[in-house]
């Protein structure tokens, strides 16, 4: 086990620790965190439209909705369309702001995060219209009324503003901020006299960077258009491949293996790995709303995998709180039980402890992989419905899966089975650990 920890420290902790410090990664993680209230609020409006399906055994609800909410659905669904429907725009704004702020703080550059955000939005919007080569000249694409002058309307908004454009938004924001930084570092800015008000001076300082960003994006996009594609479609190729890999059972196993292996050596694996995976989960959920059937979507992690927190420790916490013989475990379990109900288990991770603990390392990795497998195949095979609604990650066991799937009893039952499967894996190890602690307490006594 010591060799395993040495291996993890050398080949996982080091590389992933460096990845977590990369400036673009920090900006992307910040964007994911900032998007949480918008995805949840938007999903709550979507919940209104699926409540009759969620409670089919209560026929009167369908009748109530038919004469009330159904009649104003186009209005309240704008709450969903203007959050999840334009989520890529939110990512562009936050990444542009946070990435610029990092350079301002760490390199002491005279760059303004607000202009970094605005430049990122401009760069992203330059990739949205679709152009083609027609009769030896560039022309806006027009297709059957859905694409008008290059702007394609999707199910809820402009097609490329939805989660489908998230990866383009991320890359364009990073490129725009890097160009902004380059211009400032090389003094490619308009400097106004000191007598000019600061707000005016700041706006002119972004003039040349804005021109550079626009020119670079237009030139790159123009080259791709001549070749029969554009930036948006080129970006989609590698990211579609990545998304397809992560949507497989083996890909999910690797994701949760990384998350929990990092935890074992003291790194918050969920923050690093899931911070990069969450855009994929959000994009998959949006596709499910539009008719897809993707198992790995929405709040899959906290609905089926890390029930009670990383390591799937909810029933473990219940067990040690009421059944453990060691006084140490009993006290810890009772203190950690309330947070565990809401998927928070740092008290267990650092209190048992699980970090650097050879006795508990194996179940800590195997339990979430087992629960993830049960959840994945249950959704994949149709027993549990797909996720269409984003639920808050602290939602208690079963409730998050039920609401997130639009009222699937199969999803609720799957979540319970996942928790039980995880505990079955934990049980022999925690029994052994309980005995060890009991002997230590007897010696101390």
Descriptive notes:
With about 450 residues, the protein is an all-alpha fold. About 70% of the residues lie in helices and about 5% in strands. The chain is built from 20 helices and four strands. It has a two-stranded antiparallel ribbon with strand order 1-2. The protein has a two-stranded antiparallel sheet with strand order 3-4. It is globular. The two termini are about 30 Å apart. The model has no long low-confidence stretch (mean pLDDT about 90).
- Strand order, main sheet: write it out: 1-2
Which strand-content bin applies to the residues?
Answer: under 5%
Count of helical regions: 20
Q: How would you characterize the largest beta sheet?
A: 2 strands, antiparallel
Radius of gyration: 25 Å
Low-confidence sequence ranges: none
Average pLDDT, rounded to a whole number, is: 90
What is the H-and-E element order? HHHHHHHEEEEHHHHHHHHHHHHH
How many DSSP-defined strands?
4
Q: Which shape, going by the Cα principal axes?
A: globular
Helix content: 55-70%
C-alpha end-to-end distance: 29 Å
* SS-derived structural category: mainly alpha
């Amino acid at each position: 086990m010591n060799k395993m920890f040495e291996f993890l420290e050398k080949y996982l902790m080091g590389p992933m620790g460096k990845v977590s410090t990369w400036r673009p990664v920090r900006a992307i993680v910040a964007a994911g965190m900032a998007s949480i209230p918008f995805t949840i609020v938007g999903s709550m409006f979507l919940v209104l439209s699926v409540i009759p399906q969620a409670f089919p055994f209560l026929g009167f609800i369908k009748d109530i909705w038919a004469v009330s909410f159904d009649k104003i659905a186009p209005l309240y669904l704008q709450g969903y369309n203007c959050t999840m429907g334009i989520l890529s725009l939110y990512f562009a704004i936050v990444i542009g702001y946070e990435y610029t702020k990092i350079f301002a703080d760490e390199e002491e550059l005279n760059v303004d995060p607000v202009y970094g955000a605005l430049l990122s939005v401009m760069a992203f919007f330059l990739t949205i219209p679709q152009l083609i080569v027609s009769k030896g000249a560039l022309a806006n694409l027009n297709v059957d009324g859905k694409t008008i002058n290059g702007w394609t309307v999707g199910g809820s908004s402009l097609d490329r503003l939805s989660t489908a454009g998230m990866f383009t938004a991320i890359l364009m924001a990073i490129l725009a901020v890097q160009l902004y930084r380059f211009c400032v570092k090389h003094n490619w800015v308009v400097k106004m006299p000191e007598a000019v008000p600061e707000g005016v001076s700041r706006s002119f300082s972004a003039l040349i960077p804005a021109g550079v960003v626009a020119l670079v994006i237009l030139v790159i996009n123009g080259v791709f258009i001549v070749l029969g594609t554009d930036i948006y479609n080129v970006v989609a190729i590698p990211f579609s491949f990545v998304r397809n890999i992560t949507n497989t059972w083996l890909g999910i196993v690797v994701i949760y293996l990384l998350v929990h292996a990092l935890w074992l050596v003291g790194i918050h694996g969920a923050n690093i790995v899931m911070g990069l995976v969450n855009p994929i989960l959000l994009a998959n959920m949006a596709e499910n709303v539009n008719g897809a059937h993707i198992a790995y979507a929405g709040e899959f992690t906290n609905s089926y995998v890390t029930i009670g927190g990383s390591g799937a420790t909810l029933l473990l916490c219940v067990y040690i709180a009421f059944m453990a013989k060691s006084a140490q475990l009993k006290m810890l379990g009772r203190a950690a039980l309330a947070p565990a109900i809401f998927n928070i288990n740092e008290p267990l991770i650092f209190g048992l402890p699980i970090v650097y603990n050879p006795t508990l390392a194996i179940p800590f990795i195997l339990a979430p992989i087992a629960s993830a497998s049960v959840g994945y195949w249950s959704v994949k095979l149709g027993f549990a419905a797909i996720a269409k609604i984003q639920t808050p990650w602290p939602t208690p066991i079963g409730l998050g899966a039920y609401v997130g799937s639009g009222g699937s009893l199969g999803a609720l039952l799957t979540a319970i089975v996942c928790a039980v499967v995880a505990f079955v894996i934990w049980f022999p190890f925690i029994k052994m650990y309980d005995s060890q602690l009991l002997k230590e307490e007897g010696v101390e006594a």
